[in-house]
Every structure is written in C-alpha cells, then in structure tokens.
Amino acid sequence: MSSPAVRKTAPAAGTTPGTAQGPPLRRRIALVPTLTLLLGAIYCLLPVAWVLIAATKSGSELFSTFTFLPGTGFADNLSDLNAYRDGIYWQWMGNSALYAGVGALLSTAVSAISGYALAIYRFKGREAVFNILMAGVLMPPVILAIPQYLLMAKADLADSYWSVLLPLVLSPYGVYLSRIYAAAAVPSDVVEAGRMDGASEWRIFTRIALPMMVPGLVTVFLFQFVAVWNNFLLPYIMLSDDEKFPITLGLFTLLEQGANTPALYTLVITGALLAVIPLIALFLVIQRFWSLDLLSGAVKS
Amino acid sequence: MTSARRRSYGVKGAPYAHPSPTTTLKRARSAPYFFLLPATILFALFFALPIGYAVWLSLHKVQVKGLGLGSGARSEVWAGFENHTDALTDSELLDGALRVLGYGAIVVPVMLGLALVFALMLDSDKVRLAPFTRLAIFLPYAVPGVVAALLWGFLYLPDVSPFYFVLEKLGLPQPELLDGGGLYAALSNIAIWGGTGFNMIVIYTSLQAIPAEVYEAAKLDGATPLQIALRIKIPMVASSLVLTFFFSIIATLQVFSEPTTLKPLTNSVSTTWSPLMKVHRDAFGEGDIYSAAAGAVIIAVATLVLSFGFLRAANSRTKQEAAR
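YS: structure for the whole thing
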C-alpha cells in the first residue's frame, strides 16, 4: 500500500495532542516518499562516490577496470598532483581561498551597511536605489565581464588579483538578503533609543545593529563564499597568468591539456576530488548553523 | 512622532551634551546616503560603467586605413546599429539561442518538477531518512559548476563510465551522450544535478511555513494527502515557485561554464554552442570586441524582456487568484 493511504489516518507532526487521530499506527514508514528521496540522494551522491573511487586508480586502471572498483594508485596520483608544475595545484587552491575569503568578507561588509540603510531609513530615492541594485541580478555575467575586462585592461589591472576580487564585492543578492534581515532583526525602537542617547548614526550601526544582524550576515558570507569559490567565468576572462588561477580555472586548463595527454586525466580526477573536499566539509559543518530560511529570503517577520 | 520625542530631549541647556535636534535629524537624513556610498561607487564602477561601455562599443566599429599598419591606421568610427543588425542576422548566434532554448525547455521543468516533488516528499509525514536525503540532494550546490561538468563528463565517456560498463555487460545498446541529441540530455543532466537541491530547499522552506491547522481542517473534511498536496500545498508555495522559476530561466539563458568544460571531451560542442560562448569567442578568439559588445547587448535586452515579461505575467496571475 502506498504512503498516501498511510498518511490519511496518521497525525501530522506537531499537531495538537489529545485530539482523536483514528486507530493507532505504530511507526509506519511512508514508503513512496522515502524511496523517492533515497533515489534522489543516490543520484546526487553518485558522481561524488565515483570521483572518490576513480581518484584511487592509476592511469591504466582508469580505462581498464570496473569504474566502481577501487584502484591502487591513490598515493601515486597524490604525489603526481603535488609534483605537477612544482605544486601549482596548491597555489590554485590558495588563490581560491583568497578570492573567496577576502571577496566574501568585503562583500558581506558592503551588503550589511547597504541593507541596513535600505531597511532602517526612510529617504528619497530609497526604492529607486534598491531597484537599480537589484537589476544587477539580471545582468548576464558575460555582458558585464567583457567590458569589465576591457576597462580593467585600460586601468592596467587586468590579469591581477584585483581584477577577480573587485567586481564581485557588490552582490545584489547579498544586499537583498541583508535588507530583509536588517528589517527583521533590528527594531526601529532600538535605533531610536540609540539616537536619544546621543549616539551617532555610525555608532548605532556598528555597536547596536551590526551585532543583531550577525546570524544573517553569516549566511550572506557563506553564500558569497560559495559563489566566488564556484565562479569560473570572471577569472576565465580576466586572468592569463596561471599562477593567479583559482581552482576551477586550474582544473579546467588541466582538463583541456588532458584531452591531448590522457595521462593528465588521473591528475584532473584527483584534483577534482581534492577541490570538492573543502567545500563539502564547510558545507557539512555550516548546514547546522546556516539558516536555510535566509538563503531563500523567506524570513518571517 | 519620533521627531517630537527627540525634540524634548534636545532642549537647550540640557545637562548632557546631547546634539541639538536639528543636527541629529540632519545626520539621520544624510546617514543613509553615506551608508550607501560604497555600494553606489562599486555599482558605478563595476556595473553601470561596463554596461555603458558595452553599449558604446556596440555602436562603433574599427575603420582601417591603408594596410592597417602603424599608429593611426585603425580608428574607431560610429557604426550605428550595424553591429546589432549583423548579430541579429548571424546564424551562429541564432543557432546558439535555439540550442539554449531547447536546453532550457528540458532543464527548467525537470529541475523544478523534481525540486517540488522532493520538497513535498520531505514535508510528508512518517518519511524516513529525511535529514540525510535532504542534505544529499542539496550537496551538489557546494560543487562548482566546472567540477560538476568535469565529473559528469567522465561519467559520459564510454571508456570510463559505469553506465556504459553495465549496459555492455547486459548487451544493451549504448547511447551516445556527448554527440548529437544526446548532448542536450548530457548538459541538462549536469544543470539538473547541480540545481535541484537548491530549489528544493527554497520550496521546502516555504512549505514549512504553512501552519499545521490548515492541514487539520482539510483532513477533517476528508481530503486525501494527494488532494492536500495539489490543492493546498502547491498553491500556497506558488510565490516561491515563481521565484525559483525566475532564477532558473536567468541561469539557463546564461549557460556557459558547463558546455565550455565539456568541450575538451567531445568534438560536438562548438565554440559558439551557447550565445554567451559566441560572445566570448568574438571578443577573445577573434578580437572583435565591437561585434561581441553588440551580441552582449542583445542578450542582455532579451534577458530583461523575458524576465520582466515573466514577472508581469506571474504578477497578474497572482492578482487574479487573489481577486477570486
């Protein structure tokens, strides 16, 4: 029997206790939903499981043994990757950490102050400013990135760390989330009380409002961190010196070369595994703290 | 009201050195503009200026004098809408647009359909393993698009893929996933894999916000869970469905990194597979930034028209529903 029939008589979680709920059903499992979700989970975990196993294979095993059978070459693959171009792989990882870390930090600061201003103050042009910032979401990144590159080149900043860092600092989505969060978390009475005590607007923001906004800002930071870490297009356009590449671009060039030298495929696979580990680890740690409500912008106020 | 309270505090000769009411008010008035200064400067430098520059470029072309050698032989001249009409009649750009529309016609409904189904399943009673499956399905969000395309790219390679291995052992025909029509399925699958979890969370979050009493009432009226899902849950999360739909359309129109990543693995992804790839090729492969700018401007306008059209349609729809 399928789950809907089971559910018909089963009380919903969190319903009022004490009401008549029909015949007692002991721990019946809703089979269809559980199985559907399990299939979805298998589908989503499959490539990750594959890369975990494929990274253990030597170059010859990759093409000859069954894909889900572990190989014997993991240590060799690691040391090959480590030795490749004097460890440029680790340089790429470091660059990604730098772009994502610094970029997300700056972006969160700008989002926080803008979102706070848009949420707390009533001023002329408020909605206009907000709408113009939001229109940035709609701009296809290539449309921005090509003229950004040409302008950066004119300013002699193309192919520099700045060229990848600066264009990402203003995040329309970050401003949007910060505005929602400031409106929900900072009561106007508190701001008013700060004013009556003679605090400056800046002091009210840094000492009173900012601490109240911290949980929401953590979300903005993490969201930006993932967005910058996963970014490919901007560095692809801006950078030509591979010492400054983030990991996404580094792996892509490795794959491009691998098309001609299949021996590099094992490096690409091992590199992809190592590139995913920090983000998955971060993801597993933060998902406990990460307010998913905020991610979707659905704050109950 | 607030100003009245402040006035009582700023009386002259008050024991504390409070700022006068007028300065506080002025400061409070100018403060938001100061606070918005960083965002405004960044917007001007990295959004408005590049967009303006792209529009300017799209209206110009290079005129070459003589052999085009030496300084001054190449000069920028006004071209009007020449580049735009060229781009609009360019078969490569149109083919790319059609490919992306075909790709989007698979990705958006399948991804959002799966996201909605998973969200409803997560929200149902007595479901087991919900935290684990929710996390597993959301996990691809943490995987960069390039890495996702790379992983799936290997899984599509007949020599490496477990699917081909199984099909071969079973003596079944092996589909070509990196060629012809199979490429659409291959690319769509990467986008669906990467995006379903995020959309699922957005929908699931708004499902959780529906008060339990609503279901209670429906159950007392004898509604089946399927009826509750179709008649209550889905209409009540309509606004987040609109949101996810909107973002999915924009993301689809901008597809770039996945086909670019698959390119080294197959010969059937051209450098102009998607419109954005063509724009990139024009700018950096051919060095023709004027044509590239025109293509970029056209794509931007098309994106804006499509997304605003969609938002308007969705808005009038919800207004109608509300009026009923």
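YS: worth flagging: The CA atoms of residues 115 and 179 of chain A lie 4 Å apart.
IM: good catch. Also Chain A has one domain: 76-290.
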